[in-house]
Amino acid sequence: MTLPVTPATATPPTNPRLDAVPAYKQGRSAPAGASKLSSNESPHPPLPSVVSAISDRLGSIHRYPQMAAPEIIGRLAERYGVDPDLVTVGAGSVELASQLIHAVAGEGDEVMFAWRSFEAYPSLVRIAGATPVMVPLDEEHRHDLDGMLAAITERTRLVFVCNPNNPTGTVVGAAELERFVAAVPRDVLVVIDEAYVHFDGSPYFADAPAATDPERGAGLELFRRYPHVAVLHTFSKAYGLAGLRIGYAIAPAAIADAQRKVAVPFGVTDLAQAAAVASLDAQEELAARIAEVTAQRDRLRDVLLESGWPAVPSQANFVWVPAGERAAELDRILHAGGVVARTFPGEGVRISAGSAEDTHRVAAALAAVHPTAAVREEATA
Question: Phi first, then psi: what are they for 88, rounded to 5°?
Answer without folding.
Answer: -125, 155
